[in-house]
Amino acid sequence: MNLKTCITLALAAAGLPYAASAAPAGDGWSGHLRYRHEAVDDAAYARDASADTLRLRLGYRQTLGSGWSSGLEFEGIAALNDSFNSTANGETRYPVVADPASVEVNQAWLRWQGAKGGATLGRQRLLLDNQRFVGNVGWRQNEQTYDGLVADLSPRDGLVLRYAWLDRVHRVFSDEARDPLARERRLDAHLANASWQTAAGTVVAYGYWLQDEDVASASTRTLGLRWTGSRELAATKLGWTLEFARQRDHANNPLRVDEDYVLVEPSAAAWGLTWKLGWEQLGGNGATSFQTPLATLHAFNGWADKFLVTPANGLDDRYASVSGKFGSGKLQEKLGWTVAWHDFEADRGGAGYGREWDASLSFPLPGGLAGLLKVADYQSDGFARDTRKIWLQVEWAFPSR
Predict the structure, then answer these.
(1) What is d(CA 309, CA 306) in angstroms, rounded to the nearest whole number?
(2) Which residue of 84, 124, 175, 234 is most buried, as measured by CB atoms within 10 A?
(3) pLDDT at position 246, please?
(4) What tens digit of pLDDT does each residue of 225-236 get?
(5) pLDDT at 65 (0 to 100)
(6) Domains (ranges, CATH) in the chain?
(7) Could you report the per-residue pLDDT of 375-384, keeping only the tens digit for each?
(8) Comparing C-alpha atoms, which of 33, 32, 35 is closest to residue 391?
(9) How far apart are CA 120 and CA 131, in angstroms?
(10) How far is Cα 318 from Cα 116, in angstroms, rounded to an integer?
């Protein structure tokens, strides 16, 4: 039975009647509406981009009994203007804002859940750890989802084993993208992830064997370890993240890849503020570099998105951030803010790439709406061009019945 047949079964199952007297929490309809204005001033273009888009996500989940459930979710994006390059509208005079108008089946899955684990078959959302290697790119209007089989097992408290076989990735550029490789990629990927919570923190060991059947040079094997934890020290909470991975060429890759990934991120939380310092290194040798094509890339290396593909000479990102909450009365602790700074250099040769400031403010609005104001300012030092981005976003979600 091939994957298309499995997805068809999941679609059909989503419409089966449920005979129990009351559906458990999570069953029924859910939806999410998001409007976003994104403005981009990129010195590489004579014109600035101004994108107004509206995204509606509508899903239905149904329990079928005996541990089985199914889900179906549609996603539609409307472009309210055309003053940006969506990768599908042909407006190449403008900088890219990768939110093309489209309507798609975002998820269609069938799941079995037992006492110590389960498995999900079909098109689904997949998030591993902090999404540095595998994520859903939730920031973009069109979500990245995967066709495949994902299984999880918890043989004892604190230990979670996950395995995923991925047949296809549906990318954020949607089925409307002019470049077929930007729409989706055929994969034969095997992902293994083991997470163990201990008194000394959480240790994750992972191995990701990614064979890209459309772009052979993207096929890699990545093995790594990640350690996160925290300790209370008087009125301060100290935290850390340490991670190391080695990436090599795999399967049909014609290139020789042998690069390292390193992350060191200490943090401290006190007086309502959380401070972080970080150093992230993605190795490069001038010909090949450490890549993470399935990641939620917007969350890393600056919000201006200048390093979605690691340069051939690699990337050193040294960064600092501070975040907190404020407000009074009905808005007590409901306004959230973050300020971050990045200094980018080449891993090989140490050439400067540039610097970036990022800032965001989240706030509630009447009627259950949530607002977000966000800015990014990238100053080039020889890599790409100066870029400034501003976002204004309003969201509304309704829960399952």
Answers:
(1) 8
(2) 84
(3) 98
(4) 999 999 999 999
(5) 92
(6) 105-398 (2.40.160.10)
(7) 999 999 999 9
(8) 35
(9) 19
(10) 40
